[in-house]
Amino acid sequence: MSDLRELYLEMVTDHAKNPRHRGKAEPCDCIGTGNNPLCGDKIVVTVHKDGDTIETVKFDGEGCAISTASADLMAEVLAGKTVEDAKILFDGFHELVAGEGTPEVPKKLAVFSGVREFPMRVKCATLAWHTVIAALDGAEEVSTE
Amino acid sequence: MKQTSQFAEAFPALNQHVGDKPLVYLDSAATTQKPQCVIDAVEHYYENDNANIHRGVHQLSMRATKAYEGARSKVASLLGAQSSDEIIFVRGATEAINLVAQAWGRPRLGAGDEVLITEMEHHSNIVPWQLLCEQTGAALKVASVHDDGSLDVDSFKELLGEHTAVAAFAHVSNAIGTVNPVKELCELASAAGAVTIVDGAQATGHMKVDVQSMGCDFYATSGHKMFGPTGIGCLYGKHALLEEMEPWQGGGDMILSVSFEETTWNKVPFKFEAGTPNIAGAIGLGAACDYISGIGYDAIQEVEHELLAYGTDVLSNIDGVTLIGTARQKCAILAFTVDGVHPHDVGTICDHEGVAIRTGNHCAEPLMHRFGLSATCRASLSIYNSPADIDALATAIRKAITMLG
Questions:
Q1: Contacts (Cβ under 8 Å, ≥6 apart) of B62
Q2: Given A92, A109, B45, B171, which is the most exposed site by the fewest CB atoms within 10 A?
Q3: Residue B325 in contact with residue B174, Cβ under 8 Å?
């Protein structure tokens, strides 16, 4: 059976307990709300952009360790990237947690590779990503259902 | 205390490992496991008697009809109905409530009428009424819940009035296990002139239900929460009310005669069973009724009360665990939160220990909001559980606290 420690790596539990990017991006150029009806989680992601470059990503809301850590590490990874980069990173991340391949992703996202063995938790790991992509695309609310 | 339940043996699915851990099934409020006799009854029907009912003159159809109608009698007798034609087979409690909302409520309600529910309802006893209110202009009223999870009966009384057309409430809360004083609520609502419907999905697998002494007009339940198959449940309705109601779905079997000029309805309960029903499911539910009767609700209650007391004690003694819902009248459902650990993570760590619990809002979002929560963990027990199962849960919770708390 898949090892729990691969799901809850130290970097994941650290960012879950002490998220660095909780709050609201100022000025806020894009905002998105994500819901996971399965667990009742709700997340609000705000983005400050300079032209096509993402300057700051912040998130707020309540979630499990996986969704909180994923949102926090996503915010770190996306700072300084373009919208196009963000979409490519999300594709890689999605493949990492829900696919079968071995995508190349930044180290800070690779810590979620264990999620693949826990299919019920894929939605937790991807909620913030779905939300930020929707926010960048101008949609307001997404749901993982 | 005995470490295994004498009833567990009858349930084949309980005898397995999840990963390298023996399965500890604590999610019976979502669905109960099935005893061998129920599985056998369904298999026997498909292997021997499979035919459509109520129409064939051949042997198999007659046997299938006899088994299907026999199941109806068993349900009627288990619920204490006056006669088996007061039992309508449906997909489950959800469909039963929708049937009442649409077939009884929709033609009768209008602006100025009110539907009274409670804050602890499952979404299945909220949303059908919201739909009905939208369709008819009636208003939804909600009785509140005390901090311990019991119903605030005074608030229920205050909201009852001459405008209350329907009062709909759970017999047992699926999220926190509160047992409501249904007889008292039915008396109050009937005295105010309202029609009553009790959502019994969480009751019939655990406690004696007598619809006549309870005094409800309608009673809804699901087979799969009382050891029966999924996709089958029943609606009990007082005969006179069922007679007054128009059908809610049209099709075969619910008619006496059909012509393009005029179609006449079959009698109750067939009027409400359009199309080929879940025959195997009904037969399985009949077998589940036999299983329950064979053990007896007194014996079931004795086992479950003991488990509830032990579980309450064990969980209360874990630092950081808070029980949600501690009403005096309770079924064996333990809802709880763990400080600093999200329910979803508790659920994954429990699963890793072989312990199956439910986490989330339990289809009772308004009740979660009432307690200022977005989710809880829920361990729900049945006769096949043992104190050792609770100990396994406690071990898993401690592991979650160590890892993430």
A1: B56
A2: A92
A3: no
Mean pLDDT confidence for B164-187: 98
Residues of chain A with pLDDT under 50: none
User: What is the dotted CATH code of the domain comprising B8-30+296-404?
Assistant: 3.90.1150.10
Q: Which of the four pLDDT bands, split at 50, 70 and 90, describes residue B252? A: confident
Cα diameter, chain A: 47
Give residue-wise pLDDT tens across range B352-383: 999 999 998 889 999 999 999 989 999 999 99
Q: Which positions of B are annotated as active-site residues? A: 363
- Phi-psi group of B74: left, alpha or beta (phi > 0 → left; psi -120 to 50 → alpha; rest → beta): alpha
The arrangement of secondary structure in A4-143, i.e. its CATH architecture, is Alpha-Beta Complex (3.90)
Nearest CB among A7, A40, A68 relative to B368 is that of A40
CB contact under 8 A, B403 and A13: yes
Domain ranges of chain B: 8-30+296-404, 39-294
Whether residues B344 and A124 touch (CB distance < 8 A) is answered with yes
d(CA B24, CA B18): 9
CA atoms of A80 and A100, how far apart (whole Å): 29
Q: What is the mean pLDDT of residues B208-212?
A: 98
Determine contact: A118 vs chain B, CB below 8 A: yes
* A41 in contact with chain B, both atoms CB, cutoff 8 A: yes
Q: Each residue of B7-28: pLDDT tens digit?
A: 999 999 999 999 999 999 999 9
DSSP symbol at A30: E
Residue A140, pLDDT score: 59
Residue B2: the pLDDT is 46
Cα distance from A25 to chain B (closest Cα, Å)? Answer: 24
Distance in Å, alpha carbon of B20 to nearest chain A alpha carbon: 7
How many of the other CB atoms lie within 10 Å of CB of A80?
Answer: 12
Q: What is the ipTM of this complex?
A: 0.88
DSSP assignment string, B39-92: HHHHHHIIIII---SSS--SHHHHHHHHHHHHHHHHHHHHHT-SSGGGEEEESS
Mean pLDDT on B262-283: 95
Domain B39-294 listed as CATH 3.40.640.10? yes
Residue type, B180: N
Nearest chain B residue to A35 by CA distance is B374
| Cβ contact, residue pair B359, A39, below 8 Å | yes
Mutate to test the interface with B, among A10, A13, A39 (most CBs of B within 10 A): A39
Q: Would you state the pLDDT for residue A2?
A: 65
- CA-to-CA distance for B304 and A144, rounded, in angstroms? 37
Q: Tell me: the pLDDT tens digits for B15-66?
A: 999 999 999 999 999 999 999 999 999 999 999 999 999 887 899 999 999 9
Same fold, B8-30+296-404 and B39-294: no
Coil vs helix vs strand at A32: strand
